[in-house]
Amino acid sequence: MRDSAGVEVVQTQAPPEPLPWRVSAEPSVRIGADPASADGALYRVVGVASVPGGDIVIANAGSSELLFYDRTGSRGRVAGGEGQGPSEFMGMAGMVVGPGDSIHVFDGASQRFSVFTSEGDFVRDQRVPTDSTLLSRLVALTADGFVMLPRSRNDAGTASEIRRWRDSTRFMLLRGDEVEPLPAYRWTEMWETPDSYGWVMFGGSDITAFEAEGARAADGYDGSLVFLSLDGSVRRIARWPAEPQDFDLDAMIQAARDMGASEDQLRDAEAQVRDEPYQFPETVQAYDEQVVDAEGVSWLRRQRFPWHDPLNTGDRWDLVSAEGRLLGYVDLSPGFVPHEIGESYLLGVSTDPLGVEVVHLYELERVAEAAGN
Predict the structure, then answer these.
(1) What mean pLDDT is predicted for residues 133-161?
(2) Which of 105, 140, 354, 368 is surrounded by the most beta carbons within 10 Å?
(3) Which one, of 241, 153, 240, lies nearest residue 203 by Cα?
């Protein structure tokens, strides 16, 4: 089916059903699970990837290091370190594996890339042009260059002590020595109280992921995924039924209490919300994360709040094929976000309620019956 502009629209009428794909109940690799070990704990992981031979490389911004591990979880080489010299970092802000299996790490503080071999040998630095927009994070590597993220924050309106702000983000493309803007098809919106504890009331954004040919943007509030070229032109639209979640202020306040917010903080924030004539949305986003795997499948995580799953049983991910077909859903361990999904594995970071980060690798079996819906 095509819309009035001639864009292909792939419509799925039924809501997602469970996929027969199998994910191992326990990870086959755990890295950083024992902070008391000689390797120490991980902190502020900004990238995880596999390299030839099966090793795993972790960009650990907390130590400004590239950490190499084998598939048994044993640490090998360590590259980088804090500093401003060659191969050193002041503010790691993303990592990708590029052509020839080279590892590219962006340093937002120094506005430069450091390139390493897959074994961890330093190759060269590449500075961002000094006359370009300051870049905050490396997002992805496409066929056209590195996709970078600048960030600007602008007020969209206020209501006394409640502040509403909205980001309209124009991704940047770094191609050689040139930085050029990409279409502004990403947005973020949030309501908050402007105090020291920053109790966030409500937020929303699109969920954008990149692939070699362009981007995939999910609105977040409904079941839709837009396949875009880097120039912003729409290649395909996928739609399916998605259930928005009710916004429950009373439940959110109780959840904040359960997570340790003080009664004074809760009382002040609740009073500000209830006393102001401010209209909050009735629903919250259906999705809050997207990862595109090696087979071209988009994994979209359904947003989960503590009052929806007080036992923290797991995260549900809806899967959409490269052709726009809704395949179904897969349940993953709570707090686990894949950074890389191969044909037979998921590699990513698990974060517990206390903020402890552990890199996990799970085995994945894609059962043939998942080919259609």
Answers:
(1) 71
(2) 105
(3) 153
User: What length does the chain have?
Assistant: 373
Sign of CA dihedral 46, 350, 219, 208: positive
Give the 3-state DSSP-derived string for the chain, with helices as H, strands as E and coil as C.
CECCCCCEEEECCCCCCECCCEECCCCCEEECCCCCCCCCCECCEEEEEECCCCCEEEEECCCCEEEEECCCCCEEEEEECECCCCCCECCEEEEEECHHHCEEEEECCCCEEEEECCCCCEEEEEECCCCCCCCCEEEEEECCEEEEECCCCEEEEEECCEEEEEEEECCEEEECCEEEECCCCEEEEEEECCCCCCCEEEEEECEEEEECCEEEEECCCCCEEEEEECCCCEEEEEECCCCCEECCHHHHHHHHHHCCCCHHHHHHHHHHHHHCCCCCCCEECCEEEEEECCCCCEEEEECCCCCCCCCCCCEEEEEECCCCCEEEEEEECCCEEEEEECCCEEEEEEECCCCCEEEEEEEEECCHHHHCC
What is the average per-residue pLDDT within 237-254?
A: 77
Over pLDDT 70: what percentage of the chain?
Answer: 77
Phi, psi values for residue 101, rounded to 5°: 60, 25
What Cα–Cα distance (Å) separates residue 102 from each residue in 118, 121, 259, 323? 6, 10, 42, 30
- Contacts made by residues 35-44, CB under 8 angstroms, sequence distance 24+: 35/356, 39/67, 39/75, 41/356, 41/357, 42/349, 42/357, 42/358, 42/359, 43/357, 44/92, 44/357
Look up the pTM and report it: 0.84
Other C-beta atoms closer than 10 Å to the C-beta of 151 total: 11
pLDDT of residue 160: 42
d(CA 115, CA 123): 5
Whose tokens are 């704990």? That residue is 41
pLDDT-derived band at 154, boundaries 50, 70, 90? very low
The yes-or-no verdict on residue 354 having pLDDT over 70 is yes
Greatest mean pLDDT range, 43-57, 156-170, 278-292 = 43-57
